[in-house]
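fyi for ur records
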Amino acid sequence: MSSPTIEDDAAPLVPGVSANDPPHDPPRHAVAEWTVTILLLLFGTTTLVQAFVIPTGSMEDSLLIGDHLLVDKLAYSPPGPISKYILPYSEAKRGDIIVFRWPTDIKFTFVKRVIGVPGDRIKIENKQVYRNGKPIEEPYKFHKSDFFDSYRDSFPSEPNTSIDEGARTMLQRHVVNGELVVPDNAYFALGDNRDHSLDSRYWGFVPRENIIGKPLIIYWSYDAPTHRLQSSTPSLEHVTDLFRNFFTKTRWRRTFNLIQGYPSKD
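which gave:
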């Protein structure tokens, strides 16, 4: 059985109140992340962790097409009276990579990076993201196009293409003095492959309740094209390719790599 796909670019939308982190959030470090992985291996349940595959390139080069992930579904869940001491929970933070149900159609699952949390003021000028009036450091992002787009690269601004209703509402209600203000219980998320990502710029905020979890580990990475990975069941073409090229197309260096966010308090 194939893993569910994270449909980053499934929607045909576009052609070619404190900004501080919660003061008492305990950190989720590598020990907690490996604990979740071990629990999955022991109990084989999707209650704790779920497997997904990346079919598109909107998060390159952090996550590649063909990366198979285990997603920690406990990371942002409400803490229980006992479990909070074993696996401390947290809110999504700036720089976190999150997996969530697409606000426009929750049947699809997306993966993006949190850029703005509730209360943050977001603005993009000439492809540089500003948060709360300051340019932010983004070593994870890539610009793979020299073309300047007046909406994508200078945001918020007048859309020059079709955008989703959620994005239109976002622009109408949450822009103050030329900056986008993230409301309560919502997040502004972008792809790391910044010039080739359908993200919050095109469909709006990520509601808190839509977040499934955070990618924990790449358990397997296989070099395969998007069209093979988007199917809910593996095609004969894909199975044949696996049989013939499993060892040569598996990206062994990515196997069992932990997926880390890039924490920022600015």
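Residues 30-43 form the longest helix (14 residues). thats all i got for now
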